[in-house]
What does this fold into?
Amino acid sequence: MAKNTGTFLKGLLVGGAVGTAVGLLMAPRSGRETRKILQKSAEALPELAEDLSTTVQLQADRLSGEAAHRWEGTLVRLREAIAAGLEASQLEAQHFTRAEDGALSSGSITDRS
It folds into this structure.
């Protein structure tokens, strides 16, 4: 979505600039009037660029925060899965040890050495 927003904003600025230039060049004004209008438009460009930069920065900050939040959730689930796996393997090891001890005490396992 942020990519679409950034693309839209770029298109809006480029389209606005092209539309303004074409409109000014096609308008029935004197060269002096047209140059004044172009100069005012050129003076407004830094402010427009700053606005675009601010918008992009806000979007980047928002997306970064969302990514960090999702990553934290993923880490929590991963830690829980690892803990559950360790617990299950420890229980299985205890079960195996008890079964082995029971077999040794009943004499069903013989020493083959």
Summary: The chain has a mean pLDDT of 83.
